[in-house]
Specification:
The protein contains 9 helices and 9 strands. The protein has about 270 residues and is an alpha/beta fold. A hairpin with a 5-residue loop joins strand 6 and strand 7.
Length: about 270
């Protein structure tokens, strides 16, 4: 591997109607202690003023490139578009409403060098409505295999760093399923080595409406469709759905409780 301080990371940020949060997301990348990166923000034909905000940011910092999809095309197309224009050998994804801690890329690049990993993912914490910190951390294992990942997606898209060559071979696809989860499963099944840093190096924004039971049911259906799209039989997909359901209920139950306490002013 090249000298760590000379390896360029291309940060791909899909953006759609996220005017309120995109500046903070991009700012959290600009604040990284690891100096060698570029930012490619892919605007998926936003209609809320996101585009104006992005072009203002681009004028302020030459490390930022704004791309715009010709038509609204979804998150998989947006991420693939960013990867196609990336000049770095490593790709990091960040959703337009999430945030990074300052040491994220530095810690991940050090782990790449130490373990010769193909993928590095991290633990993360949460913020709720009106940027309330939820004092909750989703912990991750030091390493995950394909079979273990089938039981629960421990690899948050906003916390992942991976070799660009992997994404050139296996592009993201199918926004009707959990497209990022599908991608990680395909990469691990193909033999990629994924290691984790159990330290909350990024923050996931959890909106109140995302916790409604109807959305959770839709998420569960999408998860089952992810297994089927991957090629699992209905019986095998059902087996892994039991693990997904139990672990998911535990995770989102904790998030709801913390958010409820914060909204009520309880520590």
């Amino acid at each position: 591997m090249q000298n760590e301080e000379r390896v360029c990371v291309s940060v791909v940020v899909p953006a759609y109607n996220c005017k309120r949060t995109i500046e903070a997301a991009v700012g959290s990348v600009l604040a990284q202690t690891y100096p060698h990166f570029e930012i490619l923000v892919v605007d998926d034909c936003s209609t809320d003023g996101t585009s104006d905000c992005l072009h203002r940011l681009q004028r302020q910092d030459p490390r930022i490139t704004v791309l715009r999809n010709p038509v609204n095309s979804g998150v998989s197309f947006s991420r693939n578009n960013g990867v196609r224009h990336a000049s770095g050998d490593w790709i990091a994804f960040l959703d337009g409403d999430d945030l990074w801690k300052e040491q994220k890329l530095a810690r991940q690049m050090a782990e790449v060098r130490r373990q010769n990993a193909d993928i590095v993912y991290t633990a993360y914490d949460f913020i709720g409505e009106k940027d309330r910190e939820l004092d909750l951390v989703f912990h991750v294992p030091k390493q995950v295999t394909y079979r273990e990942l089938l039981k629960q997606n421990v690899m948050s898209c906003s916390g992942i760093l991976l070799r660009k060559s992997l994404l050139e071979t296996y592009q993201m696809e199918n926004d009707t399923v959990h497209e990022d989860y599908l991608e990680w499963l395909r990469l691990l099944r193909a033999g990629a080595k994924a290691v984790g840093i159990d330290e909350p190096l990024h923050t996931v924004r959890v909106l109140q409406e995302a916790s409604k039971s109807s959305n959770k049911l839709r998420s569960a259906v999408m998860n089952y469709k992810t297994y089927r799209h991957l090629g699992l039989s209905p019986v095998t997909a059902g087996y892994y759905m039991t693990h997904y359901t139990v672990r998911g209920l535990k995770k989102y139950g904790a998030i709801r409780n913390k958010d409820r306490q914060k909204r009520a002013g309880i520590r």
